[in-house]
């Protein structure tokens, strides 16, 4: 049986487009969920900022004053060095994902990277929803169910595990469905991606699941119909945006239709694009 959590992590780590890694880096930077006022700070998960002098020394040493990993760098170091035991799913999973983007991680980290992939998408969605609600002078509380759906806390019972698994399955299906927006998927290219993901330890069942989804006809209405609420709708949209370059009229039209069918307003969509650095 395919482990779609590992598959989701592998898809984000390897990237379905040339822009994927850059978009993820942008989302984790101070311009995304890791900045002042970002969702991680609001949840109490962002590390403290460095003093100006320490920051200047680090920037001088790295030669990168914008450091794409920004405020999440220390989380990545702590997780990759100490493991995820005893830490929140958000901090552990996102830290592992950051480490993977930076070149760390490996087969032993794939479970944490999968959890981090969901937590990343969930955090992007929550930030977009909170930003939109603030523009309307409304409060957007993040309740326990919202944190679960976003991968920001671990499931506590069998039903919660089932609920999270359904969201992960839906997210993987949405990403592959979006990649078909131009009318077809290049299976040779997908085979190449699958081959690269083998280095991350994905199983034969996971490879077969991915290729089976690729061969299916586009089924946007079915995917939209399975979305349980507005938060998951935003997560599905963010995942779909990560899956395509958005450089053709067909892809742009697909995203517009998806946002409409998911009933996401323009403020939420705009914030997701901004977090991922997509015009």
Topology:
Layout: H1 4-14, H2 20-28, H3 39-42, H4 52-62, H5 73-82, H6 89-101, H7 110-135, H8 144-149, H9 158-178, H10 187-197, H11 204-215, H12 220-225, H13 230-243, H14 249-261, H15 266-276
Helix pairs in contact: 1-7, 1-9, 5-6, 6-7, 7-13, 7-15, 9-13, 10-11, 13-15
Structure, explained:
- This protein is mostly helical.
- It is built from 15 helices and no strands.
- α1 packs across α9, α6 packs across α7 and α10 runs antiparallel to α11.
- The chain is globular.
- It starts with a helix and ends with a helix.
Give the tags.
mainly alpha
Radius of gyration: 18 Å
> What structural category characterises the helix and strand content?
mainly alpha
Largest sheet: none
Into which percent range does the helicity of residues fall?
A: 55-70%
Mean pLDDT: 75
The count of β-strands is 0
Counted by DSSP, the helix tally is 15
Overview in brief:
The chain is mainly α and 279 residues long. Helix content is 64%, strand content 0%.
């Amino acid at each position: 049986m395919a482990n779609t959590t590992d598959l989701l992590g592998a898809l984000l780590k390897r990237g379905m487009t040339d822009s994927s890694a850059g978009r993820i880096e942008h989302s984790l930077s101070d311009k995304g969920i890791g900045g002042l006022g970002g969702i991680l700070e609001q949840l109490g998960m962002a590390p403290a900022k460095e003093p100006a002098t320490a920051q200047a020394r680090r920037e001088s040493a790295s030669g990168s004053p914008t450091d794409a990993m920004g405020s999440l760098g220390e989380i990545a170091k702590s997780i990759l060095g100490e493991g995820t035991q005893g830490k929140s799913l958000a901090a552990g999973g996102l830290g592992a994902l950051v480490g993977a983007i930076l070149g760390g991680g490996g087969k032993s980290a794939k479970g944490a990277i999968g959890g981090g992939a969901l937590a990343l998408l969930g955090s992007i969605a929550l930030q977009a929803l909170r930003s939109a609600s603030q523009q309307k002078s409304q409060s957007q509380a993040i309740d326990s169910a919202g944190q679960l759906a976003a991968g920001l806390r671990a499931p506590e019972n069998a039903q919660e595990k089932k609920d999270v698994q359904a969201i992960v399955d839906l997210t993987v299906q949405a990403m592959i469905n979006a990649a078909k927006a131009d009318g077809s998927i290049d299976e040779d290219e997908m085979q190449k991606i699958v081959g690269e993901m083998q280095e991350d330890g994905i199983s034969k069942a996971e490879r077969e699941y991915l290729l089976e989804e690729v061969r299916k006809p586009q089924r946007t209405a079915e995917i939209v119909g399975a979305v349980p609420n507005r938060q998951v709708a935003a997560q599905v949209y963010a995942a779909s945006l990560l899956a395509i370059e958005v450089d053709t009229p067909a892809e742009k039209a697909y995203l517009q239709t998806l946002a409409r069918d998911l009933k996401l307003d323009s403020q939420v969509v705009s914030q997701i694009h901004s977090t991922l650095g997509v015009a």
